[in-house]
Amino acid sequence: MKSRFNVLKSVYENTVFRRAVLSLLSLLGLSLIIFTLARIVPGDPARMALGPRAPEEIVQKYREMLHLNEPIYVQYYYWLTNLFQGKLGISLTSFREVSVDIAEFLPATLELMLFVAIIQIAGTLILGTLSGSKPGSILDGALRVFTYVGICVPAFVWGLILQFIFSYVVGVFPATERLSPGITVPRITGLVTVDALATGNFRAFVDALWHLILPSLALALGAMAQEARILRSAMVENINKDYVLTLLSHGIPGYRIYFKYALKPSVASTIPVIGLDIASLIANAFMVEVIFNWPGISKFGITAMLKKDLNGIVGVVLMAGLIYTVTNVIVDLILTIIDPRLRYGEK
Amino acid sequence: MQGAGPLLSVKNLYVKYKSYWYTYHVLDDVSINVKLGEKVGLIGESGAGKTTLLKSILRVLPTQGKITGGEIFYKDVDLLRCSKQRLLEIRRKNVGMIFQDPLAALNPVFTVKDQMLEVLRYANERADMNKSDLINMALDLLRDTLIPDPERVLNSYPFQLSGGMRQRIVIAMALASARELLLADEPTTNIDVTIQAQILKLIGDLVEKKGLSMILVSHALGLVRKMTDRVYVMYGGNIAEEAPTSKLFNEPLHPYMQLLLKTAPKLVESPLTEGIKSIPIDYRNPPTGCVFHPRCPYGDQEVCRKVKPPPIEVEKGRFVRCHLYGSGS
Ligand SMILES: Nc1ncnc2c1ncn2[C@@H]1O[C@H](COP(=O)(O)OP(=O)(O)O)[C@@H](O)[C@H]1O
Ligand SMILES: [Mg+2]
């Protein structure tokens, strides 16, 4: 008996397993909260779905079909049993299964997130390291100004500025959509760049890349400036540590010291912020998706909220929760890879 | 040509730390030199500026630190004005420094191997060096510093090792670059008392074996007495006294040094920080005249309060900055 208990205990103590269980539980909790919230805010979903001129009996029928007249916990029970069959319910705006909608719109946003992540991480590491290793330099001052601007200017304004300059004035990058007219890519993953590469269509890949640059930049710039500042502070502190001065005293060139030996212990405070910023795009990309006519999930989510599309709201929020959870796991994983003290446990 | 000039000579060095609000005038007209093969001690309580002086020599001060005057010559190379490449060469192949705190001197997120190989790669720029050569060199250095099981240590992270072990690694790394001059900054301060003497003996033996010159900063006066030829006594960013080791300990001239010896009479391994009531100097606004006058038993004369004493050569090779011994001329 005892040994079996110990095995269970050790499985529980295995952090991966424990995290999975905890994540699942918190997602379930999240679903309960958002399910309830969506139903207690004012507004009649059935009426909104069918429009103001639909006859009352039909609306009534519709309510019954959606179990809207029953207590919330009964509704939740129906929703949960549905969920275990992999269904999130019918959207009241598209009249399709919500999971089908998500599958359609999510990849566009995921692709955007991927490129924002690449730009943001590369930019943060380079700017943060350069300005942090020479505090007070011209670049450092420029980054400071850029940060203040970055905090004040929201992503969609960046989007409009970039669109104006690079699409309308200079005309190098396309203003909207994911691909130029006439170029098509078969849908495999839904990430156009990946699908283009998978089918060997290099022209479409470049075209997709070109379309991604402006919206990704718009979403990346502001957050990148702030993240670079966080990295900068950590760098400024660490370049005076004896372990950096020691390498300096051995004649190791500056670029190797700063971009390797000072950077690695400095990034720990920046990584969780980058993770959160990128995960938050799932909802925050809305305005940019509108401006760039990007068929993403943010647009779908906001429409669901405005139209009180009950199943749509719950589905999108849950998916956002899932993305935050996954991001957290990735962030923790990276932190553990970077800091051996987390891996081996100090002392 | 060796033996002509000193190996290292620091002349009239001024170093400040600048923070946002204040300027700390730490080193104030400091001159020291080290001759080839000489072992020089540097003593003085915490905050005297010993670390600042050593870091200045290799130009590895923290960003707030600025050298504002003086010169530093390594042989005939002007370290404050030479090309960047020349400075890098000297850091790589001539001078090595053991930093004060072995816990702080090793990067916590890289293995010992990462750090040692990095250092060795640049200390031995030769086209035929490959990775296994470097590893063997690292292992040899670790063996030199009497580290048991060097393979395991090499693959460890610093936090997996004891303080004494880390200090040996720091010594091994310093030796990779110190082909001529070793700067040892309190190599025993932050490690277990029971192995302090052992570590100092190790350094002494290695310096002897490799024929190095050395500046040794230490609070262990007894060991400084045993291991050095000449000693500089620092107080408040000034060199208070300079003398051959035996003369200094037998007949200290500067009132500060006399106080030090009085409070550490046995001279075995007595740490000197605790000794006298230590009022840290406010470097933003250091005392006028002689920096030691507020604490000096003879410091109530007007000249001590007003005039900074010049170095006075009491006998050949013995200098003291104190008005008791005249006012120079
Ligand atoms: N980065 C810094 N900024 C301001 N003051 C500093 C800095 N580093 C050292 N100091 C000051 O310089 C003085 C001398 O320090 P240090 O050279 O470490 O002395 P020691 O090694 O003799 O103990 C101390 O008063 C210390 O507070
Ligand atoms: Mg010190």
UniProtKB/TrEMBL annotation, chain A:
Membrane disposition: Multi-pass membrane protein
PROSITE patterns registered for this protein in UniProt: ABC_TM1 (PS50928)
Lineage: Archaea, Nitrososphaerota, Candidatus Wolframiiraptoraceae, Candidatus Terraquivivens
Main subcellular location: membrane
CC annotations in GO: plasma membrane
ABC transmembrane type-1 domain boundaries: 106-335
Protein name, as recorded: Peptide ABC transporter
Species in which this protein is naturally found: Candidatus Terraquivivens tikiterensis
Subcellular location field: Cell membrane
Record's keyword terms, sorted: Cell membrane, Membrane, Transmembrane, Transmembrane helix, Transport
GO BP, sorted A to Z: transmembrane transport
Family of this protein: Belongs to the binding-protein-dependent transport system permease family.
Membrane-spanning residues: 21-41, 112-133, 145-170, 208-225, 266-292, 312-338
Automatic annotation (TrEMBL), chain B:
Alphabetical list of Gene3D superfamilies matching this protein: P-loop containing nucleotide triphosphate hydrolases
Keywords of the record: ATP-binding, Cell inner membrane, Cell membrane, Membrane, Nucleotide-binding, Translocase, Transport
GO biological process, alphabetically ordered: peptide transport
Localization per record: Cell membrane
InterPro entries in the cross-refs: AAA+_ATPase (IPR003593), ABC_Ni/Peptide_Import (IPR050388), ABC_transporter-like_ATP-bd (IPR003439), ABC_transporter-like_CS (IPR017871), Oligopep_ABC_C (IPR013563), P-loop_NTPase (IPR027417)
Gene Ontology CC annotations of this record: plasma membrane
Pfam families to which the protein is assigned, alphabetical: ABC_tran, oligo_HPY
GO MF entry, a single one: ATP hydrolysis activity
Keyword Glycoprotein: no
The ABC transporter domain, residue ranges: 8-261
Membrane topology, as annotated: Peripheral membrane protein
SMART domains, alphabetized: AAA
Alphabetical list of SUPFAM superfamilies matching this protein: P-loop containing nucleoside triphosphate hydrolases
UniProt protein name: ABC transporter domain-containing protein
Species annotation: Candidatus Terraquivivens tikiterensis
Lineage, highest ranks first: Archaea, Nitrososphaerota, Candidatus Wolframiiraptoraceae, Candidatus Terraquivivens
